[in-house]
Amino acid sequence: MVFENLSEKLQNALGKLTGKGKLSEKDVDIAMREVRLALLEADVNFKVVKNFTKNVKERAIGNEVMQSLTPGQQVIKIVNDELTKLMGDKEVKIAFASSPPTIILMCGLQGAGKTTTTGKLAYNLKKQNKRPLLVACDIYRPAAIKQLEVVGEKVDVPVFSMGNKHDPVDIAKAAIEHGKKHGNDVIIIDTAGRLHIDENLMEEIENIKNIVKPNEILLVLDAMTGQDAVNVAESFDDKLGITGVVLTKLDGDARGGAALSIRAVTDKPIKFVGMGEKFDQLEPFHPDRMASRILG
Ligand code: GDP
């Protein structure tokens, strides 16, 4: 189950309210203290937590809620609403170019799941009758090009590569020409991963961005890394202006901090989540469904 621990703690805290016929401000305060702890333990950004509990409390102690017949249920509904809002309210889809090809630049730290996600995205787009082309712009890690080629073969999507002796900017340019000629309507560029934020590599993606003018810059983040993922998102966004995030490994025992903080901290939407290693395990991110999932 996604965010099992957080789910259990929130359900516990809020469950205490539902048995009561009437709620006092103190009841709400006690519950909010537990909610606050649960969120902090789940590694949610502390400012986000503070704002969140403040918003819930303000709404919860309003007369309408307190005097309703089911105040506890009303508070749960408010928490659900606020969780949904925190994650961006609505699903944000890929922004396809009005005249194809749509260009998607993939970036992220090594190990986050960038190459796997690139394959998953291609698989997902193919199912929507698109004709994607994958582009191997990671020329530094010897196995990277091969890995993308293997992924391409598995999802039956062509891969454009020029080996590792060309500038990634030139590879990207050539790939777009190639894609246009071959009727590819979505071009997904896999860039070099990095262990940490690295100025040179970041500059390289920026150069690719300036030349190819992508419709989407998707940052792949590992949900297991919690607040580190949020910091990485802030850095990439400052430098590149990302258009969205793919949060991977939600099937693992991630605590929830990244999923619940990224939108609030960076104002950039989570567009997809990775729910496993297989190519069909990429899901569009629906804030309302995720909130309901967490609250059980
Ligand atoms: P890259 O270095 O960012 O390109 O990362 P890779 O795509 O090579 O992925 C690193 C590891 O994470 C691989 O073992 C993937 O199978 C795994 N991985 C990627 N996405 C997910 C996911 O959503 N769930 C799980 N469980 N594993 C994933």
UniProtKB/TrEMBL annotation:
GO CC term, one of those recorded: signal recognition particle
Single GO biological process annotation from the record: SRP-dependent cotranslational protein targeting to membrane
Binding site for GTP: 108-115, 190-194, 248-251
Top-level EC class as recorded in UniProt: hydrolase
Localization in the cell: Cytoplasm
Keywords from the UniProt entry: Cytoplasm, GTP-binding, Hydrolase, Nucleotide-binding, Ribonucleoprotein, RNA-binding, Signal recognition particle
Catalytic activity: GTP + H2O = GDP + phosphate + H(+)
Molecular-function annotations in GO: 7S RNA binding; GTP binding; GTPase activity
EC number: 3.6.5.4
Domain of life assignment: Bacteria
Domain SRP54-type proteins GTP-binding as annotated: residue spans: 269-282
Family per similarity comment: Belongs to the GTP-binding SRP family. SRP54 subfamily.
UniProt remark on domains: Composed of three domains: the N-terminal N domain, which is responsible for interactions with the ribosome, the central G domain, which binds GTP, and the C-terminal M domain, which binds the RNA and the signal sequence of the RNC.
Subunit architecture: Part of the signal recognition particle protein translocation system, which is composed of SRP and FtsY.
Biological function: Involved in targeting and insertion of nascent membrane proteins into the cytoplasmic membrane. Binds to the hydrophobic signal sequence of the ribosome-nascent chain (RNC) as it emerges from the ribosomes. The SRP-RNC complex is then targeted to the cytoplasmic membrane where it interacts with the SRP receptor FtsY.
Name this polypeptide is given: Signal recognition particle protein
UniProt source species: Wansuia hejianensis
Lineage per the UniProt record: Bacteria, Bacillati, Bacillota, Clostridia, Lachnospirales
